[in-house]
């Protein structure tokens, strides 16, 4: 494994970049390149397996699975954390929306590269599948659909992050790839190109697969619904939302209903079960990146992408205290006497967990002094575990952690990896996507029971949160929505529910951009947060620029200006 070498470079904060655009756009798995050895069913199947591996081939550098840097730290959910602002300083630049620097070298440029490597793996598999017939390989059409799904996933993620990207298929030669501009397609056209892959997957995949981890018809329908929901919020060239397309919203309703009415997926009884390895691939997981441990390989196939984010001072962990929830997020979990969120006053003062009532999801999401750590009441979280409380406060991220006693946990030097799968789409997301579409269609009454399903599950998810004496660590009070369910109120509730349900999992920033409220929300957050956290004194979100990451300059240089930079950079 190369993990130790790569991780030392992370902490050093520097990387020597030796790859080029052509290297990864034309990348194929080593040992499987020649046209002579891919024209068989066994070769095609091997390349399919390699493509599945490709979508999870990230580390702390160039994240592809967990978007905690791009979606959580860039939002109002979390601070960078770690040992002060200079510790992996590049993440601090993302938090400050300071991305015009020429020395941004190892985070999003590597994410760009990693996703295009994944696309090339999918395309290599598709090229191999094109060379065999269904008599030789009866699963040909199914595997083609799986590869189209994986390719759609990688293009979707790139578009969500960068907006303007080159679209690469298996039919393109190396020369074609080098001529493919990142602005060839208009915004809506590019969504449709990516959507074609998911539609092909819907049309050609079975509803269930024999092997865990393979895409199926319903995971493709869920992903296409997600794409159509993003596409519905139409943006101009400067990223401003100018219209919400009702036809796209109706497609979201139809696609999500296909998943919901199938009965194949459901909410886990306890919210906690989405975040522990022992219950992964449960009824709520629609598509997940699969990892393994003790699988016969030297160190297993582990995820290290959140390996910096464990408690720094706890003896069983020791590194490195990144990704600390914000005070704003902690305050957002407060509830009133009616058990509902305090939409307008939640951030007036900091939450007191001893006296105020809160949503139970706070203790699934945030490590709080004296509260059970990761559902182990014998190991309460301690403020002494925080690395730099003077800068980032005392809260700690929880969802992405696994106990050191978990069979999924592996420590390599100071760094931590786990075999816990990373969910890309869950059933709770499908419910809330449908609810959002109904609300924007003016059918908010149909959204109410969907959102209340999520809140009922949250209210029931307290069993694993108890302390050793059987008492609960916080005063929980969460109720369902009922009266006053206008479209405006429903929209506010939906946006709040998405934040609390997926807090620190990364969707927050991308939701704000999609809704067209990123500038308003994030600058209001920063105005208040600057009075609490001095390190944010110069942070400011600039509309028309900061909604997306800059196209890596090395790609623009390599293509001699064929790739165009995003506005404002």
UniProtKB/TrEMBL annotation:
<feature type="domain" description="SusD-like N-terminal">
    <location>
        <begin position="23"/>
        <end position="229"/>
    </location>
</feature>
<protein>
    <submittedName>
        <fullName>RagB/SusD family nutrient uptake outer membrane protein</fullName>
    </submittedName>
</protein>
<dbReference type="InterPro" id="IPR011990">
    <property type="entry name" value="TPR-like_helical_dom_sf"/>
</dbReference>
<comment type="similarity">
    <text>Belongs to the SusD family.</text>
</comment>
<dbReference type="Pfam" id="PF14322">
    <property type="entry name" value="SusD-like_3"/>
</dbReference>
<dbReference type="InterPro" id="IPR033985">
    <property type="entry name" value="SusD-like_N"/>
</dbReference>
<dbReference type="InterPro" id="IPR012944">
    <property type="entry name" value="SusD_RagB_dom"/>
</dbReference>
<dbReference type="Pfam" id="PF07980">
    <property type="entry name" value="SusD_RagB"/>
</dbReference>
<keyword id="KW-0998">Cell outer membrane</keyword>
<keyword id="KW-0472">Membrane</keyword>
<keyword id="KW-0732">Signal</keyword>
<feature type="domain" description="RagB/SusD">
    <location>
        <begin position="283"/>
        <end position="569"/>
    </location>
</feature>
């Amino acid at each position: 494994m190369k993990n130790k070498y790569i991780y030392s470079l992370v902490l050093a904060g520097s990387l020597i970049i030796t790859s080029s655009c052509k290297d990864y756009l034309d990348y194929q798995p080593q040992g499987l390149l020649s046209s002579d050895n891919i024209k068989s069913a066994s070769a095609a199947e091997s390349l399919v397996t390699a493509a599945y591996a490709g979508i999870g081939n990230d580390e702390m550098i160039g994240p592809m699975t967990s978007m905690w840097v791009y979606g959580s730290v860039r939002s109002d959910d979390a601070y960078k954390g770690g040992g002060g602002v200079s510790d992996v300083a590049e993440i601090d630049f993302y938090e400050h929306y300071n991305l015009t620097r020429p020395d941004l070298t190892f985070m999003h440029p590597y994410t760009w590269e990693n996703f295009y490597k994944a696309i090339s793996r999918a395309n290599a598999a598709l090229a191999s599948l094109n060379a065999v017939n269904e008599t030789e390989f009866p699963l040909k059409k199914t595997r083609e659909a799986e590869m189209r799904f994986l390719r759609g996933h990688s293009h979707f993620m790139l578009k969500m992050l960068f907006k303007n990207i080159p679209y690469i298929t298996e039919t393109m030669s190396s020369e074609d790839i080098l001529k493919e501009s990142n602005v060839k397609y208009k915004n809506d056209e590019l969504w449709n190109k990516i959507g074609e892959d998911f539609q092909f997957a819907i049309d050609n995949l079975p509803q269930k697969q024999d092997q865990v981890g393979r895409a199926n018809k319903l995971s493709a329908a869920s992903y296409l619904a997600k794409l159509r929901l993003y596409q519905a919020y139409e943006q101009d060239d400067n990223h401003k939302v100018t219209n919400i397309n009702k036809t796209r919203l109706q497609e979201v309703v139809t696609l999500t209903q296909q998943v919901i009415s199938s009965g194949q997926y459901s909410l886990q009884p306890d919210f906690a079960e989405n975040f522990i390895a022992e219950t992964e691939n449960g009824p709520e997981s629609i598509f997940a990146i699969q990892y393994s441990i003790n699988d016969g390989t030297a160190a297993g196939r582990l995820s290290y992408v959140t390996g910096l984010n464990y408690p720094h001072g706890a003896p069983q962990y020791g590194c490195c205290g990144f990704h600390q929830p914000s005070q704003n997020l902690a305050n957002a979990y407060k509830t009133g006497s009616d058990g509902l969120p305090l939409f307008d006053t939640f951030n007036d003062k900091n939450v007191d967990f001893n006296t105020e009532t809160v949503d139970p999801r706070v203790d699934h999401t945030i490590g709080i002094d004296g509260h059970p750590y990761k559902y182990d009441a014998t190991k309460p979280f301690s403020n002494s575990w925080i690395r730099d409380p003077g800068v980032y406060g005392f809260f700690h991220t929880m969802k992405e952690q696994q106990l050191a006693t978990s069979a999924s946990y592996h420590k390599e030097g100071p760094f931590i990896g786990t075999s816990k799968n990373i969910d890309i789409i869950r059933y709770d997301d499908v419910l809330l996507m449908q609810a959002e579409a109904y609300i924007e269609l003016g059918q908010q009454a149909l959204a109410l029971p969907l959102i209340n399903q999520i809140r009922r599950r949250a209210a029931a998810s307290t069993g694993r949160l108890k302390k050793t004496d059987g008492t609960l660590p916080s005063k929980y009070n969460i109720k369902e929505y009922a009266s006053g369910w206008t479209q405006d109120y429903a929209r506010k509730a939906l946006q709040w529910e998405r934040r609390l349900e997926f807090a620190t999992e990364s969707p927050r920033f991308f939701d704000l951009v999609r809704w067209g409220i990123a500038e308003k929300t994030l600058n209001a957050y920063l105005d208040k947060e600057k009075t609490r956290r001095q390190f944010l004194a110069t942070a400011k979100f600039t509309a028309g620029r900061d909604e997306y990451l800059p196209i890596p300059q090395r790609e623009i240089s390599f293509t001699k200006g064929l790739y165009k930079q995003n506005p404002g950079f």
